[in-house]
Fold each of these.
Amino acid sequence: MRSKLVYIILFLFLSVLIFNSFIDDNPYFKITSDDVILTIPKGFPKPKYNFKNNTITPEKFVLGRKLFYDPILSKDSSMSCASCHQRIAAFAHIDHALSHGINGLIGKRNVMPLQNLIWKDAYMWDGGVNNLEVQPINPITNAVEMNETLSNVVNKLKHNKVYAEEFKKAFNDTIINSERLLKTLAQFTGLMISSNSRYDKFVEGTIQFSDTEMNGLKIFKTKCANCHKGTLFTDNSYRNNGIKPDTSLKDKGRETITNNPEDNNTFQVPSLRNVEMTYPYMHDGRFRNLQQVLNHYSNPKNFDKNYDLSLNKIGVLSEQEKGDVIAFLKTLTDKVFLYDRRFADPNMK
Amino acid sequence: MATILVAMSFSINTKANKGKLIIDFNNYVGNEILKLDSAVYKNEAGQSFSVTNFKYYVGNFHLRKADGTEYISSDYYLIKEDEQQTKQIMLNDIPEGNYVSCTFTLGVDSAHNCSGAQSGALDPANGMFWAWNTGYIFMKLEGKSPSSNLSGHTFEFHIGGYKYPNNCIREINLKTNNLIISSDKTSSIEIKTDAEEVMKTPVTIDLSKLPSVTDSRNATIIANNYMDMFSVLKINNEK
């Protein structure tokens, strides 16, 4: 009886050992130098964030990935970046209109997807952040998000044996500071590039669109592409797309940054790549699905009084036309990106 | 061969003929040396106040000789009233000679406001950084005044902004007529920084009306005030 127990324990011990070594070289999570090559997809413009002062290496990328998925960045170790940014939603958050932060506190805006970030030089719905590297300071220090201080996060990392090892692997010395934390995070998020949707294949000429999708594209080009422009589906401007301000949120949009009353209730035109997966929609998540979005654009009587005049081109869309546009928008879903193993949670093993 | 010789003699030369400069920032309120928390001062509007925190960025130092040649050090420094060692900065490898002026930036130039994560004085963990509207806070003056109607009778001026029309970067130009740098020697300049100037000339700040400036609104008013808070107290030449 007793020896049986010893055998069972031995067996468990061994299997843990074997399993662990299996995880360590699990090819699914392994990052090689091939995985961190930055290739600019065909037809994309020149990136605005170039990794000039932040040379990408597999070790730094892996460290950035670990940090992104680690709740150590929050005050009570309850929240990681990934708590709000879900991979399956192109790193937006499915079903939460407004972000949920530490202690269940509700933020004032809808979580944005993380994709094609290196083509921006103004982040957030109001464009207040001017460089990808400094963006994480916002969620880390926001009282209703991770509620930490940057210096305390750095302290926690300094006193953590695993991170001491990981930073050494990445930088070949023992320095841990906010610059390194922020730069490795930027390597991880900066490589999140979506350029393999059915739409991209259509543009390449390798697949064909259905009649519905084709008609949707045509309507989109004349009525929407003025703002949702080009390969990135945004002209990066700040516009009032006709949605009325939510009086309880008191979000002034771009005016928060410029203090210019003319910018009141304007928000950065979002990219529509992977839009099928990033519901709910708009800066405050007011629309649950694309049907509601199309209903909004198709109902000029209900626009906010300061709406952008280029919306006039849209007019009233028939149900058929709305359906066609939605069918087109769904061609922007990029399964290669959504299931890209490089961005998967390494703790998920 | 000849070029190598010239290059060698040049490098030997430059090394031998260089000195150092210490710049000491001495924080004052009017004619009194600033004492945090306990000392009570009067501002231009006649309101009493005390100071709990005073910090500012300086950098991009240019020392100019009479013939127009310049020594440039583009580094930035964060002067913190509550950390003695931050108030003294050292410039190295200055060619010897007589320097007639010292110019520097109060704040952080726009390129450094946009270049992402940095370390040292510009580490955002120093608490002199706005994350939501990214950019450095160039100057923080915080304190208490019975005239302020904010809770706890506090006042706070957090001034930054590198974009038109709210640019608060200010170029400071001080005459240093008799500053002499000698090779292998260390001269020093004692600079007075008068925190009271934040609240006066050209605009007298009334703490009952404007106890807080923490974004671009009104920031340039304070920036135009703090522009003249520096003056040279003394120059010590080591020869």
Amino acid sequence: MKRMLKIYMEKPELAALLLLLLLVVLFQLRSGGVFLSFDNLRGFFGILPEMALVAIGVTVLMICGEFDLSVGAVFALMPMTMAVLMATGVSFPMALVAGLLVCVAIGLLNGYLTIRFAIPSFITTLGMMFVARSLTVVISGGFPPLLPTDLPTWLFTSFVGPGQLLRMSFLWFLAIAVLVSLLLSRTNFGNWIRATGGFLPAADALGIPTARVKIACFILCSVLSGFAGLIQVLRLGSPLPSIGEGMELQAVAAAVIGGTALNGGVGAVFGGIIGVILIRVIDNGLILSQVDANWFKFAIGSLTIFAVVANSWLRKRAKSIKVEV
Amino acid sequence: MNGPIVSVRNLHKWYSGVHALKGVSVDFARNEAVGLIGDNGAGKSTLINILSGVQKQDEGSIFVEGKEAAISSPRDSMRLGIETIYQYNSMVPTMSIARNLFIGREPIKYSLFGFGVLDLRKMREESVQAIADVDLHLRSPDALVGELSGGQRQGVAIARAMHFKSKVMILDEPTNHLSVKETNKVIGFVRSLKEQNVTGIFISHNMHHVFESCDRVVAMARGQIVLDKRVSETSIDEVQSVL
Ligand SMILES: Nc1ncnc2c1ncn2[C@@H]1O[C@H](COP(=O)(O)OP(=O)(O)OP(=O)(O)O)[C@@H](O)[C@H]1O
Ligand SMILES: [Mg+2]
């Protein structure tokens, strides 16, 4: 029994999950039942995958011991690159490949610069955030190009499932979440990610190629962000250069709320997703409860601080429950 | 085969101006426990780091079982059967015992280009066995290493080295910051290496520990070996006088 309790207290995403349930009940009551209505859920699940995909990448990278503040800018740059290419007649698949290659290049550069010059990734990717955002605006030429009308939008945004509740993007998100989650918990590469972020000198001494592991995580993070940006642009129907602003910090907040440690080694993809859902629920719930929308950032901010404090408290408590090891 | 398991010849290492190793040559025999002693900065860790692939020598060669060995990464060293245990660097505290045992050498079920699905069951079973083999009593391989005491951690590190059938185990100040009781445990591990047919290289600042647990003592000072004798043929006083 004690043992079970300890295991649960050590799972930081659990606290977030409890809070989520609480908020859902609260908002459901406050909104007079609108919150869990079909239409609201449909809107909710339609937007969720975009931020969740970003948070998945950020969570993995944080577990590996690094940050990426350029995700919001990459979120805008990737679909803008595609739109500009398609405006000159390049086909969708070719533009998709080019867009993803841009993401790979940015992730590679983020990782390479961080490791080669031993600078905090916080700084490298802060710089990259400005660079990528600027590039997005510059290549758009001021006016966002029109998207061609014959895009396979259905593959990403059309409604599917029971009662057309979900968009295709949700299925992409589910598949990617499961894959990345398994990668982290069930593969040797996932073990290396945790070791690298958990204690770098030990991982090095055990012969883990830590530089390459980190660079791979930077690339994963960039690619997922760019892909998420593409989904949003296809949903909105137009590539705006300003999308994804502020997303980098929300993604970090989501990861932290879901129990990811700021100094690496600890965390789970599932936790990051719970974090995103919490943030979206608060956003959506506040609006439905007709609270002034400006309270949104206040709520996310307090939640982040609360989550970190609660997690460290829980972990300490769990440690003090003595079960024999 | 009766030659030395590891020999180094004329090893030199410079760190931007500091001549840390000045032509070190030494042999380590099979199943021998060797104590490596020396003042701070004598070059012990440098020698060990070269053997374990963390650093590369500037000059000189290493022979493992008579064959010249190019060791340029920890992996090369581990592949040659050399396992190194440090006070701090050998475990990831945020990971479980079972996972720690297999970092970098995970048993894989299906693999593609060296990446694959972990055989979690095998990891659990083998870690339970490995821990029992070194007489360490830990109930669950799922406990986080961060929750173990310093001595238990060293025990797990030694269990790992044993599990991977290492032939040479290097312990760089494994008893630093450990209590007397925990230190005795680690000393016990060092002593038991012999029975398991493993060569031990044990770095310590504590002469008593070395004399208690080793067959031979090698003393270094200022990047050179200044004494190399069997424990039975020397004394703490003699070793101290050359340092
Ligand atoms: N990474 C490094 N960069 C520069 N100089 C170094 C480095 N590592 C060791 N040195 C220098 O090399 C010399 C030998 O150091 P080493 O760490 O091998 O000594 P040691 O015998 O292990 O000492 P201690 O007992 O304090 O651990 C010292 O003068 C040290 O300052
Ligand atoms: Mg040393």
